[in-house]
Structures are given as C-alpha cells and as structure tokens.
Amino acid sequence: MTVSTRTPGRRRIWAQVPFYAVLLLLSVAFFAPILWMISTSFKTAGDATALPPQWIPPTWSTAGYETLLTDPQVPVLRWLANSLIAGIGHTVLVLLTAALAAYALARMQFRGKNVAFGLIVSTLFVPGFVFLMPNYLIVDALDWLDSMWALIVPGAASAFGVFFLRQFFLSLPRELEEAAFLDGANRWQIFRRVVVPLSLAPLSTLAVLSFLTSWNDFLWPLYVLFNPENLTLPAGLATLRSAYGTDFPAVMAGAVLASVPVLIIYALSQRYIIAGVSRSGLKG
C-alpha cells in the first residue's frame, strides 16, 4: 500500500519537472539582461568592453552615475522630469479619450457604430512608423515642435485603449445603469458616477500601459525635440554615444535610473493589471 500511494505522487512530481525547467529558463532569460545592466553600470569604461566579459565588476566604480548626475552637458534629471511630464500628460489624455469613446461604442446606439469600431480596431494593424510623417506635419503646423505638447498629444487617441475598455464596459451589468436612469441620472452622470468607479482595474491597467509606451518612446522624441534640455530620458541617453566610442557605464547607469520608476509603478499596480486584463475579456 505504501509503494502504490507514493508512486503516483512521484510521477506527478517528475511530470512537473519540464514545466518548472521552462519557467527557470524564462526567468534566466528575463533577469540576465537586467543583472548585466546593473553590473555594467558599476564598471569602469575599460572593464565594460573587456573580453571575455565578466558578470562581477573587477573594480567597482560609480563613474557612470557621477557622469549622469554631475556633468552639466548630461542633464539626466531634466530628461527624467521631461519623461515624467510627457508620460503623465499622455496617460491622462489616453484615459479621457479612450474611456469616452469606449463607453459610447459599448452602450450607446447610433448609426455606423459597428463601422466606426471596425475602423478603430483596423488601425491596430498599421505599423506605427507610418504615422511618423503625418504626425510630424501636424505638430509642425501647430507650432508644437521642440515642446512637450509634441510628446503628449500625438497618440492620445489610443485604438487599443478604446478596444480594451469597450470589452470591459460590455461586461458590466446593464441593470446598474437602468437603476441610475430610474433615479433621474443622465448619461454623463451614469458614466462618471457608476461606470468609472466600477472600472478602476481596467483604467489602471490602461494607465500603466500608456505611461510605459510614452516612457519608452525613443524614435518620436528624436524627430520633434531639438534642444538637448528638452529631450526625454531614452533620447537623451542616446546622446552619450559618439563616433569615437560609447560610455557604456554611463548608458547602463541611465538605463538603471530609467527602470526604477517603471518597476515601482508596476509593483504598485500589479494586482490592478491582472484584474483588468482578466475581466476585460469576459464578454465580446
């Protein structure tokens, strides 16, 4: 009896070995670049390019961080502030436009609604670089070049945000809105006082994704920003590369600084992201 009860348990354990082995490989593949980034940020310029590469710095140095924080030609704190301003402004506009459009497509009846939703979703299949020139011409016509408006406004009409929130709004019980109608609330009051409080999870998810999109944007700021002090962090770090070499410790130190706000935001909003993604697909 003892042998027969242990054998199935051992089989189940061995059956799970491939699963955990794959998880271990994925974890290594994910964390290895991060650990290498942190290690290189504490190396000297010579150790960062030495062969064979070494995971642990032979000589620990903070020269990369000192370059970023003390060199007047590398205003990394200004770049960090610009990235925060652009990311927060872009996120607020995405939430406003996407939430209003998604609610209209999910709950309101009007002619051409399905066609409009189909056109919005179809833009998700268009490569982003196709919009570079049209957006540049629009920003130039509005005299927004080399300003934060050029980073905040373009892309605020998020097709993904509309699709994502619409899926969640469709899953909300209509009885809640009907009860609010009976109490004398209009459409705007229902949206603001009933729908939005119930949608904190998907709204938080969309906010994090929108902020990360703006925070990590590299190509667009290079097109529309010219003054070095107006650059965002990804674009500013690219200026550390020259024709004669790259200050890898400084670049990696900047990458470490850029990743800290992202990790903090994700750690604080992780449960909202999981809840938002799981609930937004309940009803199509």
Question: Descriptors for this entry?
Answer:
single chain; 284 residues; mainly alpha; MetI-like fold; 2 domains; two-stranded antiparallel ribbon; 1% strand; disordered C terminus
Describe this structure in words.
The structure is a single chain. Helices cover 71% and strands 1% of the residues. It has a two-stranded antiparallel ribbon. The chain has 2 domains: 2-63, no CATH class; 75-279, MetI-like (MetI-like fold, Orthogonal Bundle), CATH 1.10.3720.10. With 284 residues, the chain is mostly helical. Helix 4 crosses helix 8 (159-171).
Write down the secondary-structure element order.
HHHHHHHHHHHHHEEH
Number of domains: 2
Report the sheet with the most strands, covering strand number, pairing sense and barrel closure.
2 strands, antiparallel
The level 1 CATH classification of the largest domain is Mainly Alpha
Q: In CATH terms, what is the architecture of the largest domain? A: Orthogonal Bundle
Q: Fraction of residues in helices?
A: over 70%
Class from secondary-structure proportions: mainly alpha
- Total of DSSP H or I helical runs spanning 4+ residues: 14
**Content of β-strand:** under 5%
Give me the CATH superfamily of the largest domain. Answer: MetI-like
CATH topology descriptor of the largest domain: MetI-like fold
Termini Cα gap: 51 Å
| Spatial shape | globular
Major sheet strand order:
1-2
Q: Point out poorly predicted stretches.
A: 280-284
Q: What is the C-alpha radius of gyration, as a whole number of Å?
A: 25 Å
Overall pLDDT, averaged?
83
Per DSSP E runs of 2 or more residues, the count of β-strands stands at 2
